[in-house]
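okkk here we go again. third time trying to get the zinc ion bound version out, last two times i messed up the smiles copy paste (missing a bracket lol). double checked this time i swear
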Amino acid sequence: MLARRDRNREESGQRQSVAVTEIEPALRGLLDEIQASLYAQARSFLESHTIAAAERNEFLDLCSTRAGMIDIAWCERAECEAEVKRRTMATTRVLRELQEGDVRCTACGEPAKARAYFAQSY
Ligand SMILES: [Zn+2]
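finally!!
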């Protein structure tokens, strides 16, 4: 009997009976399915907990009140991050390339150098 831990007991496919002679191919297929399922769940969670902010007050408010990642154009300056942290407890998590239209840092107004996720640590 194979039981998946990425599904609830009442979900279809959570448990399946497999003959011992078929266990190897069954496990290979099942592990691929579980990997794809966990990846999709993680990606969906990240996307649903990521909010882009284009305006300073909105950004600071979101950093203080929302769980998840707040996505902004950022200047990459340590002083800017320190000020955001002082006001909201949020710091940078992941830097990415600028997107078209990113000119100024959402947090401070200096020239933007990257896209950044800000989030509070717990
Ligand atoms: Zn800045």
